[in-house]
Every structure is written in structure tokens, then in C-alpha cells.
Amino acid sequence: MQPPSPPPRSGPGSMAPRSAIRCAWPLVFASLLLSAAGAAPALEADTPNIGLLRGPGMAGSQMDLYLEVWLNGVGTQRVLHVAMTADGRYHVWPENLRDAGIRTDGLPQDRYLDLASIPGLDYAVDMPNQRLDFTAAGARIGRATQRLNLEPAASHPARVTPGALLNYDLYGNAGEGGTRSFSALTELRGFGGWGLFSSTGLSAFGSERQDEPYIRLDTTWSASFQDRLATLNLGDFAGGSLGWTRATRMGGVQLRRNFALQPGLITYPLPAFFGQATLPSSVELYVNGMRQYEGEVAPGPFQLFAVPGVNGAGQAQVVVTDALGRRNAISFPFYSSSQLLGAGLSDWSLEAGAVRREYGLRSFRYGDVPAASGSLRHGWREWLTLEGHAEAGEGLVLGGLGAVLRLGSAGVVNAAYAASGGDAAGGLASLGYSWVQPRFNLGFGINEAFDDYRDIAGVEGEAPPRRSAQAVAGLQFGPAGSVSLNYSRLDTDEEGRQHYAGVGYSLGLPRGASLFANATRNLDDADDLSLFAGLVWNFSSRTFLSANLQRSRGRDLYGADLASTPPVDGGAGWSLRTRQGGGVQDWQAEGSYRGDHGQVVAGLGSVDTVEAAYASYSGGLLWMDRDVFAGRRVDDAFVLVSSSGVPGVPVYLENRPIGRTDAQGHYLLGNLNAWQSNRVSIDALELPAQLQAAAVEGRVVPRDRAGVLLDFGLREVRAAVLTLTDAQGQPLPLGSRVRLQGGASAPQMLGYDGQVYLEGLSADNRISVVTPQGEACEIRFAWTAQAVGIPALGPFTCRGEPP
Asked: What is the model's pLDDT at position 661?
């Protein structure tokens, strides 16, 4: 039992640690003797609570007791001072009673309280065990609210091993008339404890870009600070944005919040449900019929948090089963939305530099005037998130405020207003609403720009839309499928107004099949009506068939796809595709193979009777652990498994076989979860007997787009099984101690039939043996490594005294 917190210094009573109880007993007995002799005077109320005392609400002599408190069958890890009067009644100071978890509402606070007179509270004193058992009604329990299912998100410190990686995607095609083209998309990365450097580029030959065969895309150095949830970028990046602003590509410096550094952190508000337990109880939480939590709760109030796994309205049920087996279920409706931030959380981004121009067309084109922007979202309350955004650029300043508000179970509304000034003055208003129910959902959003509203993206490029609006509604019919309605409008200065409405229907069929159909109409052109219907049939997790029919402006188009994707762990795949009708005659046949060193795709196709052949290859080259080798393309985090040069060692990811080490004893395990714990292991049962591993499993947490070297420490064991006998040829006694002279290992015990296993052998070895009777002898023998297995040597005769 943990010692209680220090007692309050004010008031006649106090809580005392168990050590004080042991020290108090001699004084208590002495006080009893003095009380019986009538020689003990009463002490004042502020004297130490040892011996005899009088206090407010007390009459006559008393004995101080220090008892361990149990409340409704649960130990509170508290010790309570109790004053027992001569008439056998027990009194407690109110403040100490509250510390023990008993409410004193409606009771006098300036005097000792007779436990027998407190309504809703029963007690029993166990003097031999120095224990006080309280049985309190729910309204009398005053313990702090217990918070359940709200464990802090686990933050695993990430590691990185210095290295470099080159990802590449190569594509080439050859068509009729001798047309040929070749392109390559490349990414070069360097990583280490200093951060991550990345540069991407596009090369094209035999196309319109003949005059500029290589175009640089993004070059960035970044460093992430996991404990601060922040990332610093230097170079090219996309600026931060909100739902009512536009992101801008820039070159410069950016500092932003990065919640991905702690993937277990839940950023949106969690529904919380309150309850009260009178006895020790078990608590279960069900969300939409699925059990999410099961645990124990002590008597008193509790608050249970839920991670609903749904976005919108739901139904939760809290089931409390007490120690007597009584079961009580309470239902709670809730509304959860990922649009909100949890109370106290902030998401932000700050950037400054120059706006990127002609991205994907030129390598180094930036604005001449510096620009800056900043975005902020803050969870002010569980039901309200505040937003702000600001920009400054060439002849432009912009600022705006917004909010996201949860309307109880009636949905979420968001609104914002921004104003631009300088050379382009205007405003932008934004309004949106969403409401998600288990069988129905509704949402809409509208942004409208006034006057000459501009942002820094509009100064350097296309102006913001004058108006954009979207609306969607959906209805679920269970086994009968679902229906959706949609509306969209986009008004721009360049293309005018685009105005569409549509309806869709989908139905799940047995054996992995599904049916879908939709119709879309241009509200400004009655002749622009498109109908689309199709069937998708998944034969397995990799193989599917798709067939569809499309009718648009009087033309009918039929299509079909039959494909089998390559396995994630490697293997072959293929696809067949065709589209016919309306003057279109297209077909395509393709084969692919995914191996440990990359993925190759090759195919033939025809578009409008023009045939062409094409092929592509994607992969990566990695330098790490003083070696360069080829592998698959790696887009996220990865682990380089090392078996210390031993080839063919099976590698597992989360207990799933994933591959084997290559001839150099390496295996590149790519596309892992960055900033999360990944369990990687090897199968030690397939290792030769003469090989040992320092570990067969490791948990690694890599940084994003970087790698970690995981070395299982395989080593060759120079070992043998020896058979030892005495001069008469009988096995040496069981339990004899065998020591390898010059070896670092401890003595080994001799087993049955005189056998012992020894490691660390050399070409010439000497061992000493001491029997349980104290007799000593020694043996010399030679050892030669074998290709497979641990050799069995002997029998060797143990003679003479060791030196």
C-alpha cells in the first residue's frame, strides 16, 4: 500500500501513514492506562492526534485509532484517524472523511462526526487488522472521477541509419510509324541524424520536351521533431491551407505542425460517457453494437471515453456489472466529427519564400517578390474549433477567420470570411454544413469571392473561382443498396460556369459482386446527359472483373476489364481491357511481375486503331551498411534487414513471411509505417545449427522516407558435443564441471552419457574436468569446422591432474 498524502495541518483530525500507526500503539496503550487511572488531562484540539484529546463535537475521554480505509469492498490506500469515545462510538473529522472518499454534504464541517449518525453510510471496524470498512450509497461516495480508456498515445522514439536511396520509374513505348518515347521519374534521397534530403525530377526523350530533357520538380531538406510534433522544411514545399483557402507551392522555409509524428494521437474530440459505480464493477463499452472497451472500475463516478471509428452520429452503450452480478446498461447517443480539433490542440503552418512558377514545366522559376503565409486551427472547446489564415505577397495582403461548430447531434457547421487588400481588394465568404446518420447523410458547402479578391496563388497564377458550391445527400437501404444525390457548381473567369446535378445507386451482391449506376446532367445544357452503369465482381483479393456501359450525347460505349494484380510480397499479374462503341475501338493486354529488385510491366495496346507496345520498370538503389544493392521502389519508411552475410534467411513482418535475404545477407523491407513500431523477425529454425542469432525479433520505428538497419547479429558458433570417459571407459559422473582453458565462458555441467556442449573452440583445445567427488583431470583434443551442423567428438579419456 502506498503511503497516503501528507495530512492537512489545519483541523483536529489528520490522515497518518502506516508507520505512524506502528509508532502510536505504545502511546495508545499508555493512554489507556492513564485513562483508567483518571490521571490523563484532555489535550487541546490542535495537539498531535496521539493519546487522549477533546475536540469540537466530542464528550469525555477518547482513544485515537489509525485505520486502513476500505470503501465498498475496495482498498483506498488511505489511513484514517478515528477517535473512539468511552461509549464505543467512532468519530471522524469531516475533512479527513472527504479525503477517504466520503462526501460530507449537508453535515457539520466544524466538529467531529459520529459515523453512526451519517445517512447513507454504514461501517464496520476490524480492530485486529486495523481496518475500517465503509459501505456507502452512491450519493455518499465522493471519490475523484475515474477516467477510463484515455491512455496517452504511445510515442515511440524513431531511429534512422545514415544512407542514400535512388527511386526510379522508367517508361518507354514504340508505336506505328516509328514513334518512340522514353521518360524517367527519379527521386534521390539522403538521410541520417541530420535530417532528410530529397530531390525529384522528370526526364523525357522523344517528346515535345526534347529541348529540356530533365525538369527538376522538388528539392527539400526537412527535419522532424517528434516530441514537439513539428517539421521544418527548407526548399520546395506546398504551403499550409484550410478548407476555405488554397495551398501554394513555394520555395523557402516552412515550419508546421505534424501530427503524423505520433500516429497514435487522436486529434478530434472523443465522445465521453459518465457513470457511477457503487461496488467494484466491470465496465463494457459498445459503439454501434461493436465492443470497444472492457475494464474494471472502483466504486465512485467514472468517465469513459470512446474512439468511435465512425464520423457522424452513433449509439453507444455502457454496461456496468457490479461485484454481485447485477447488470445495468445505459445508452448514449453521440456525434463525432474529424472536422473538429480536440480541446487544447492546435494545428498550424508558417512559411516564407517565393511562389513557385510553371511547376512541372521549368526547373527554376520562382516569383521575384517574397511571399509569406500562415494558417492556424485551434480546438477552443470540444464543440468549437477556431481557424485563421493570413498571406502577404507582391502588392497583396490577406487575412481571414473561420470556425467549425458542432450542433450537438444535429451535425457540424463551418463558416469563414477572408478579405484581401493592396492591388486586389475583395472578400471571400465560405459556409458549409454536414450531418451524418447511420442511414442518412447530408452536406453542402459554398465559397463565393467578391470584387477583386485574390490570394498569392492567384497573383502568380489562376484567380480563385468566383463561386464554387457542392451538395450531397445519401440514403442507405441496407441489403437493398444505397442512393446518392449530388450537385456541383464552379464559376471561373476563364471557363465560365459549370453546373451539374446527378443521382447514383449502388447495390452489394453475393460472392464479392457489386452493381452501380449513376446519371449526371448539365443544368445549363439539356442535351448534356450522361448515364453510366457497371458491375464489379471480385473473385479474390487480387482478381476482379469489371463491365460497364456509358451513354453520352447519343453515343453508347461498352467497356470490360479482367485483371489480377501482383501479390504484395511478389509475383506475377496481368490485365485485359477493352472499350468498344461510339467510334471507339480500344484494347490493351498487359503483364507484370513484382520481384525483390523491382517491378516490370509490359503490354500491347490500341487506341483508335493505332497500336503501340510499351514497357516500364520501377525500383530503387540503396546505399547502406557499406553496400549498394537493388530493391523495389520505396515511397515511405523502410528497414534493411541484415543477416551478417548469411543468404536465404526467412524474414517476417508482423509474423507474416515476406522474403529471404539475398546473397549478401540483406533484405530491403519497404513501405513500412513511419513513426510506428514495426515487428520484424527471422525464422531461426531454418538456420544451420552452427549459426546463432543475437536476437530473432526486433521492433523498429523508422522515420518517414528514411531507413533503419536491423542486424540480427548472426554469427558462426565454433562448437562441438564431446563425450568424456574415465580411464576404464565409463562416462564421467553426471554433474561434473567442464571448463575450456583459455575460454571466456563459465564452466559447463556434464550431462548424461558423459556428454557436454562447448562453444568458443579453436583448432587445438584443452579442457579441465572436476567431478562431484572433487577428482580432477584434463583432456586435449583437436576441432575442425564442418560445413553443416555441430560435430560430435569423442569419446575422450580424461586423465591426470590439470596444470
From this structure: 87
Bridge-based pairing of strands 146-148 and 678-682 is unpaired
pTM equals 0.76
Q: Which three cell numbers stand for residue 208?
A: 515535345
Q: How many residues does the chain have?
A: 803
Q: What domains does the chain contain, in order, with CATH numbers?
A: 18-143 (3.10.20.410), 272-336 (2.60.40.3110), 625-716 (2.60.40.2610), 720-797 (2.60.40.2070)
Question: Considering only CA atoms, which of 773, 776, 775, 772 is closest in space to residue 803?
Answer: 776
Predicted confidence band of residue 105 (pLDDT cuts 50, 70, 90)? confident
8 A C-beta contact, residue 707 and residue 159: no
Does the structure show a pLDDT above 60 at 304? yes
E strand segments, 477-542: 482-492, 496-509, 513-522, 529-538
pLDDT digits (tens, 9 = 90+) for 556-580: 899 999 999 998 878 999 999 999 9
| Identity of residue 301 | P
How large a percentage of the chain has pLDDT more than 70? 90
The least confident of 18-32, 69-83, 698-712 is: 18-32
Nearest to 638, CA basis, from 536, 710, 539:
710
- Is there a contact between 516 and 533 (Cβ–Cβ < 8 Å)? yes
**Pick from 471, 464, 431, 432: which is nearest to 449 by CA?**
464
Longest distance between any two alpha carbons in the chain, whole Å = 125
- CA pair distance 582, 42, nearest whole angstrom: 110
Q: Higher pLDDT residue, 803 or 72?
A: 72
Nearest to 548 by CA among 520, 521, 576, 580: 580
DSSP class of 29:
H
- Range of lowest pLDDT (53-57, 116-120, 135-139, 714-718): 53-57
What three-state secondary structure class fits 314?
A: strand
| pLDDT, tens digit (0-9, with 9 covering 90-100), for 332-386 | 888 888 899 999 999 999 999 999 988 888 888 898 889 999 999 999 999 999 9
Residues 716-742 as b or e (16 or more Cβ within 10 Å = b): eebbbebbbbbeeeebbeeebbbbbee
CA distance 718 to 745: 13
Buried b / exposed e across 207-227, counting CB within 10 Å, b at 16+?
Answer: eebeeeeebebbbbebebebe
Question: Which grid coordinates belong to 755?
Answer: 556428454
Query: What letter does residue 270 receive in the DSSP assignment?
Result: P
Spatial neighbors of 506 by CB under 8 A, at least 6 apart, are 481, 482, 484, 514, 515, 516, 517
Whole-Å CA distances, 236 to 340, 405, 421: 29, 34, 27
For 105, residues 6+ apart whose C-beta sits below 8 A from its C-beta are none
- Angstrom distance (rounded) from CA 609 to CA 216: 35
pLDDT tens string 243-298: 999 999 999 999 999 999 988 888 888 887 777 777 788 888 888 878 888 888 88
* Helix, strand, coil percent content, the chain, rounded in steps of 5: 5, 55, 40
Residue 428 near residue 400 (C-beta atoms within 8 A): yes
Q: How far apart are CA 33 and CA 27, in angstroms?
A: 10
